[in-house]
Amino acid sequence: MRQIDARESPRFAQISTFARLPLTQDLSDVKAAFFGIPFDDGTTYRTGPRFGPSSIRQGSRLLRKYNPFADVEPFEQLNACDWGDVNTVPGYIEDTFTVIKRDMKSVASKTIPFTAGGDHSIALPILRAMNEVHGKVNLVHLDSHYDFWDNYWGKKYTHGTWLRRAREEGLLNEVIQVGIRASIYGKEDIEDSKKLGIIYYTTNTTKSETDSIIRHVNSLKGKTYVSLDIDVVDPAFAPGTGTPEVGGLSSFEIMDLVRKFDLNVVGMEVVEVSPPYDLSELTSMLAANLLYEGMSTLAKRMERK
Amino acid sequence: MRQIDARESPRFAQISTFARLPLTQDLSDVKAAFFGIPFDDGTTYRTGPRFGPSSIRQGSRLLRKYNPFADVEPFEQLNACDWGDVNTVPGYIEDTFTVIKRDMKSVASKTIPFTAGGDHSIALPILRAMNEVHGKVNLVHLDSHYDFWDNYWGKKYTHGTWLRRAREEGLLNEVIQVGIRASIYGKEDIEDSKKLGIIYYTTNTTKSETDSIIRHVNSLKGKTYVSLDIDVVDPAFAPGTGTPEVGGLSSFEIMDLVRKFDLNVVGMEVVEVSPPYDLSELTSMLAANLLYEGMSTLAKRMERK
Amino acid sequence: MRQIDARESPRFAQISTFARLPLTQDLSDVKAAFFGIPFDDGTTYRTGPRFGPSSIRQGSRLLRKYNPFADVEPFEQLNACDWGDVNTVPGYIEDTFTVIKRDMKSVASKTIPFTAGGDHSIALPILRAMNEVHGKVNLVHLDSHYDFWDNYWGKKYTHGTWLRRAREEGLLNEVIQVGIRASIYGKEDIEDSKKLGIIYYTTNTTKSETDSIIRHVNSLKGKTYVSLDIDVVDPAFAPGTGTPEVGGLSSFEIMDLVRKFDLNVVGMEVVEVSPPYDLSELTSMLAANLLYEGMSTLAKRMERK
Amino acid sequence: MRQIDARESPRFAQISTFARLPLTQDLSDVKAAFFGIPFDDGTTYRTGPRFGPSSIRQGSRLLRKYNPFADVEPFEQLNACDWGDVNTVPGYIEDTFTVIKRDMKSVASKTIPFTAGGDHSIALPILRAMNEVHGKVNLVHLDSHYDFWDNYWGKKYTHGTWLRRAREEGLLNEVIQVGIRASIYGKEDIEDSKKLGIIYYTTNTTKSETDSIIRHVNSLKGKTYVSLDIDVVDPAFAPGTGTPEVGGLSSFEIMDLVRKFDLNVVGMEVVEVSPPYDLSELTSMLAANLLYEGMSTLAKRMERK
Amino acid sequence: MRQIDARESPRFAQISTFARLPLTQDLSDVKAAFFGIPFDDGTTYRTGPRFGPSSIRQGSRLLRKYNPFADVEPFEQLNACDWGDVNTVPGYIEDTFTVIKRDMKSVASKTIPFTAGGDHSIALPILRAMNEVHGKVNLVHLDSHYDFWDNYWGKKYTHGTWLRRAREEGLLNEVIQVGIRASIYGKEDIEDSKKLGIIYYTTNTTKSETDSIIRHVNSLKGKTYVSLDIDVVDPAFAPGTGTPEVGGLSSFEIMDLVRKFDLNVVGMEVVEVSPPYDLSELTSMLAANLLYEGMSTLAKRMERK
Amino acid sequence: MRQIDARESPRFAQISTFARLPLTQDLSDVKAAFFGIPFDDGTTYRTGPRFGPSSIRQGSRLLRKYNPFADVEPFEQLNACDWGDVNTVPGYIEDTFTVIKRDMKSVASKTIPFTAGGDHSIALPILRAMNEVHGKVNLVHLDSHYDFWDNYWGKKYTHGTWLRRAREEGLLNEVIQVGIRASIYGKEDIEDSKKLGIIYYTTNTTKSETDSIIRHVNSLKGKTYVSLDIDVVDPAFAPGTGTPEVGGLSSFEIMDLVRKFDLNVVGMEVVEVSPPYDLSELTSMLAANLLYEGMSTLAKRMERK
After folding, report:
1. How far off is chain B from C204, nearest CA to CA, in Å?
2. Which CATH superfamily includes the segment(s) C30-304?
3. Span F117-129, pLDDT tens digits
4. Does the structure show a pLDDT above 90 at F250?
5. In CATH, which superfamily holds the domain spanning B18-304?
6. In whole angstroms, what separates CA E57 from the centre of its chain?
């Protein structure tokens, strides 16, 4: 599909869809769709990600059609569109999961969704949908946190527990975590995750051994889902987020990582963008660019075949 | 047309059109259309109003369908829509005027436009279009400034000179100014405007003699255009604007004024909303509510007939 | 109990409890306690009130011990303290209601709680607790919204439906609403509320007939609960809130109203303070002052007896 | 002297002096001079007023030469200039007082200073200078606070104690306070001030009996100094201040008061503007306008003679 | 010339000229002058750079006289001053170009201008002036964008087309671009630029091959102009800009680059600083420091001769 | 002592002490105590650090008990607490020094203080207290500035002169400065510092020779105090500070440095956090994390013995 061209209609004019692409739920021939999940009741600290999709759309107004790094025109090659948002149910995380899974299943069976969250809890219903459509998938998880805790205040579903649930529910094949650095509640948190076959790279390792991590990631066999929590990036580059951890990746580093992915990707999400804590749409712009790079690697890979 | 209902789809979800109304340029049967003019090259101090339409749409997400003050459902009664934005030409104020006039003429010949600016210079091409469609119109001008200067830096077209131009070009019948209070360049500024038959009420008078001003305004015979510069309001209520003047109306007072208008209105504009200087969409929300009240008075008047 | 004195320890020093009062859950001899409910999953638009109690404590650091308007020293006369916060359960509104009701019942049976929300949904479990401790109570409800909708997205519990629930559950005697002005979903919204015996005053009436409203409120017989949604105030005075409605009361007007209350009050709440949207703690300061005035009217009334 | 004309050089261009007036310390023939005192070590809560003069200059860029309310051109009639700033001594309040008094004495012996603070503690050395130049003066003090406390943390000099010191040092004749409303440390605070012959009007009285207060103020015989603490205004209109008190005057009301002053004024100050807490120069603009109105009343009075 | 010394007059006191240098248009013996061009009608997305010069002056208040990296005292060695600002013509980009060229020609014929923009469109009239004074010059262009598009909305002059115009007008010798990374409208954009002999280094190359790029730049023969668009830096370091591109240089990296330049420089500009989008003058401070480093390399080079 | 567990009581609930640790001045068995010094009268540019301790406590709410980098549980191993704040004396830097020294001496004789400033001038009374408790100590000083100037405006005590004073008073053994980069008043500034045996590493060296600097620091014999000025970090990562210098360390780099320290530490401070200039508590979070890492290295070292 065709973006509105900024040389004809100024970027600050007209309705904001993702990258100024058409808004449609007709996904025939669409190979990639922007998919919004405005939700933040899974957050354990600051809220705000319910405005993530809306703000990422605003932050995407500068994206131009040709990506010189990937040498592709992702929107045209993928016939990409903006699908709109899931109608979430504030206050009711489990009901919201039902709606997300339903909509995502419908979308993922027709195209490859590029999701803008929402807090990270949405990954669970997304992975449930992926599982129903594709069977078990690999997970590439970029985050400063393990998200592998058992529960918060006795509740199984939060943005810090989805990965353990996904593992327990048998939705996943291999899991690789990249960028981990947050303090945790105890040594056993790491051991639990190791026992369940999850491999992680800390932020330090991610910075010093980037190439080898990329090789590991790209060696994954089979369908793979990419979950990117914006707090994997340092809060200087992504201040608009709810549980920031200092000492993270730069925006250059995260862009570089995502650009080098070469995966059989069945979906990608950028979550935890919290506009009320952002500055001048900085974080939303980064999220928009990361989805753009994700689409670009897909376009490149498709082109190659 | 039908708004997206906030009880079904949360206000923070989906694309932001004005009041979550359908986006369309098909104006058959449409009695009122939101019309965006993102432009700010006419500003003499702070810029920003090019983001006015986009931000007013965001600020309109809380508007509900029934207005208890007017006892109308303006959107349904007027079959209202969001027309989209004019594609302005940054850097070229006169070329932009050409485009605005063209688009406005097309719209105003079919429906009643409720325009979101843009800086106040856009009033000139709008009035030119009104003149071509309706002949001379009256002007109700709410503002803290006279906007009647002859020129700035030798140029005839700015947000401070449009009214003198409109007068000179013979576009207007009666002109009533409400809320004037800014310091000026000389006593002759007022005298010039008086000579040309412009009647003004200061902010002080507007506050102390509201009812009599309303009566004066509502006594206007014939087609009338309403131009509301958001800086008529005190900057505490509308910080997001470019040439603020302290000591203005409260948002309660401006809402009260607009609610009491009973005019043969051919169009209304809210201009000079400058989102970069705003706080938490305060000014954009006020602008959205003023357009809503404008539509409501129109719906009420139509109903009465 | 004794505040930390700002003439001995600067206001910017030491831990922030409400008004720098002692933090304790021992309520023997305590006649008024600050009670925090950090929660925002009942919000239908912007979140943020989970930081309300924390921010209102910061905003209370300027409160001095003697209130010249009421001619009382509320903290000393009431032996006031800061009780701390309820441990809410993000993502689970109904579980949170259980915890709030339990804690509130325990507190309300010993002292008079002055609650800092939290979004307005918390009023329901509070009123349930009040009902168990005191039986049916009257409600004085200051708000820009009716909060009387039946449901949002099919759910019974949100910050817009608590009042209908409280009515249905038979928790309330007389209900007086003050400051109402928001647009609504239909005419029937008002009629429903009237049928259930709820009396409301619009913002316009509140401004023009203040004294008569005060008389009406003060004529209430029996135990009365005061629920103040900060959005009854104009967003210029209270920008930090989630569903702002322009054209509201000034901070002078709301302070004046609350100062004139003379009620057999069993509790008071200030809700919907959303710090991420605030400026320089403006809204939190106003909320802190309103709780201070509430305590002062209580102290004055106690003194009189 | 002559302002830079905004119709020739845009307001956003060139160096910011007060109202774009010449910067000079040659005061021969100058009847009014802007005088900056960047200092904030007298603050007991938030700092920031050291950036007051700089920010008020920025906020003055919209002032035009003719004031229609007063029907004067204050800058030309008074041959006004910007004197520059006192070189204060951070960390050393008493040394700073020495420097302020020295510079103020030099200025006040030649012209009428319109001072931009700085925190309110600067009023003490200013009044000492006034006393040396003019003998005892009357004081019109607009503020939300009494500023009459004896000491903070055992220290005699803060922004809350200057008035008691000035009284004790015998610098003042009559003192009228307008706009008082803050909570205080005890009933004796008021009684002390009454004993010392200070008359005060609360914010409530100021709003309801404006005309009679104006008459009282204008009845003052002899030389009079006007001290305006920006926190007399409600923080919605002046968020950029250090010890805000909700429920204050609007900017319309304070402008109205100052415009009606008709005094034998020997100087005026606007203090407690704290730019780090401001929004879009709102508070600085108000301060600039208040100094402009002060100069205008002076020009009008001079004209009359 | 001599800066005001921060050890004598605090940095927050007195009028803000660049680096607190004297303001003068007498350029005899002046070897470097700060030159402000407040203009933003060439912007295609966010406006704001009209406040660039004013804000960069504020951000320059921390610059001290001795630069330990370069081991020079640039202001004294160059006898530097602040020339003031060009009086631009908002709304009329081509008229503004005329004024800029006229003023720049006058300045560049006497001294070396260090320009604070303004949006990037100003580079065109500057290069026209350079051409008239110096003949063809080389261009070192640091930017995230090519700025080589043919037109926007049919117009030849914007901040995205100046370089193509300068090439077409034959103003330039060699052109080296550093830091390029933005997405573009098509592959042909790059090819066009290559055809016209423009050499570019992407952000990736700039980071990995810094030394070789520096050598290339420093090998330029003849007079050279340096144009630095602040968006070459990552928006985390320079949030105050209009068309930010994530994944850029850090402020350490850009400072390092500029410090290593050893060029026969005839002028330098830092453009696209947009204060309304900035945080705590972060971007303005960086711009001020870059101009300071530019002056320092000039002083060092002069010293060496 | 035991933190409040975020899995039981949400992070946004309850009173904010450092890392949600108990507030107590009973230091028996306490091996590390958070110690707040809210003070900013030593600042020479922007103020604000008087809110440092309060904001760093807010920013510490995300710290979890186990530090995977150090493989320790610092709070439990050190039995850490929050001591509260010193009651400073605004306006009187020398009186404040007396109070700081008294309180610090009392604390340092019982435990190891981890201080949150406050501006950097507080280091002088802290070092005086250290000297009385421990005799001469080494100093590891991380900063962008030398802080070795003789005086500002004739005064010996500011945040830019404390190190020279400490040297002159004979409080220190070896001094190593890390991260220096600011422009200075003259070449002699460096020479003076060298003469007095102070060794410094610039930011450039710190980045390129990290390991060798760490070895140098860790080779210090005897008791050592660590003073970390947050402006050693680039303002992108720490915008909330008063005299920022661009081109600094990233938060990753400063965390990495502090994590590698292996010192006989007698105290650590993080100073110059200025919340009014911060964004979303970014700087406060970084400061909280740095204190956490400091405690962790202490816990690790203690464990080893």
Report:
1. 9
2. Ureohydrolase domain (3.40.800.10)
3. 999 999 999 999 9
4. yes
5. Ureohydrolase domain (3.40.800.10)
6. 14
